[in-house]
Amino acid sequence: MLLPVADVLGATQLAEARRLLDQAEWVDGRVTAGHQSARAKRNRQLSEDSEAARRLGDLIVGALQQNALFVSAALPLRVFPPLFNRYEGGESFGTHVDNAVRQVPGTPHRLRTDVSATLFLSQPDEYEGGELVVEDTYGVHSVKLPAGHLVLYPASSLHHVRPVTRGVRLAAFFWVQSMVRDDGERTLLFDLDHAIQELGREQPDHPSAVQLIGVYHNLLRRWAEL
Ligand code: NI
């Protein structure tokens, strides 16, 4: 499932993010790339242990925990501390698949990347190109969202970032280990949750509502790994 999540960051948080990023020091983006993707990656990144990356990462993870759509779609078990990238002057990231397992920096923990996320931090009119292009079984999807919006997609997808030919594209990217590893099962739960919410709004006293909620939780119990 490829899903846009609107307004993860509000205007004040976005302004704070941009202020921190404007003062930050950028390094070659290949520091966090795997073997294959290092050859395709041309951009810059905030150093993972920088103060700006930590503060911004906390801001984003905090906002995600409050975001009902993100939680319903990703069913997060662990969220990788967000990384930040910057593309300009024709920089791009060729077609690749994200590494399946990542070491969480500064901890003994590893995270299985089930869901990939990109949070746009520049407005679409600030740069030309820079679309995130994701391939799945339904075709090729080109994504360029307003600043503060996020896109979620299966980490198993081939994807690339088109060259940024004007301006600067700033974004956060990270991965989620989901309680439900399989994208198909996660999508079924998301659709069911959505239908239950709708039913709750339209027919709050409908006797089937409680039964459907029971089905949701019993499927989650069957599929969740903690
Ligand atoms: Ni990637």
Can you give a write-up of this model?
This protein is α+β, with helices and mostly antiparallel strands and 226 residues long. It has two domains: 176 residues, Jelly Rolls, CATH 2.60.120; 41 residues, DNA Excision Repair, Uvrb, Chain A, CATH 4.10.860. The chain has six helices and 16 strands. Strands 1, 2, 4, 5, 6, 10, 11, 14 and 16 form a nine-stranded antiparallel sheet that branches. Helix 5 packs antiparallel against helix 6. The radius of gyration is 18 Å and the shape is globular. The model has no long low-confidence stretch (mean pLDDT 95).
How are the SSEs ordered, and which strands pair?
Layout (H helix, E strand, L loop, with lengths): L2 E3 L5 H13 L2 E3 L6 H4 L2 E2 L1 E3 L4 H15 L2 H7 L1 E4 L3 E6 L3 E5 L4 E3 L6 E3 L2 E6 L6 E3 L2 E5 L2 E5 L6 E5 L3 E4 L2 E15 L4 H20 L4 H17 L3
Helix pairs in contact: 5-6
Q: What is the CATH topology of the largest domain?
A: Jelly Rolls
Return Rg in Å: 18 Å
The largest sheet is:
9 strands, antiparallel
Can you give the mean pLDDT? 95
Q: Could you give a quick summary of the protein structure above?
A:
The chain is an alpha+beta fold. 34% of the residues lie in helices and 33% in strands.
Keywords:
226 residues, alpha+beta, Jelly Rolls, DNA Excision Repair, Uvrb, Chain A, 2 domains, nine-stranded antiparallel β-sheet, five-stranded antiparallel β-sheet, binds nickel (II) ion
